[in-house]
Amino acid sequence: MRVEARVKIHLSPEEAEALEKALRPEAETRLRGVEACVSREGGRLTIEVRAPDTSAARATANSLLRLAATALQTINETRKVSQA
Predict the structure, then answer these.
(1) Contact 20, 38 (CB under 8 A)
(2) Partners of 46 in the β-ladder
């Protein structure tokens, strides 16, 4: 059974670009038959995962989403510091 997942995140264009750059190296890594792709259109970031099973798809999606959340949190904290 092949599993596919797609997550779309709506951000500012600048945030989407930064997250795409942060996630792309991780998404390009191919492990256990998992394929992942990160793309952006304006402020919309799309993460796509294709995996041989549900467990691999979930693990990959979770990893990429955690990395995205961490990168976005870092961007927001950096903005706060620079505005202070």
Answers:
(1) yes
(2) 8, 39
User: Does residue 78 sit within a domain?
Assistant: no
Smallest CA-to-CA distance from 7 within 40, 59, 45 is with: 45
* Sequence-ordered list of residues with C-beta below 8 angstroms from that of 36, at least 6 positions apart, any chain: 26, 27, 28, 29, 47, 48, 49, 50, 60, 64
Provide the 8-state DSSP code for 52.
S
Using DSSP, state whether 4 is helix, strand or coil: strand
Integer Cα distance of 39 and 22 in angstroms: 12
Number of domains in the chain: 1
Whole-model pTM: value is 0.88
List the domain range (segments joined by +) for residue 12.
3-71
pLDDT tens, position by position, 3-60: 999 999 999 999 999 999 999 999 988 888 999 999 999 999 999 999 999 999 999 9
Candidates 73, 18, 56, 25; CA nearest to 37 is 25
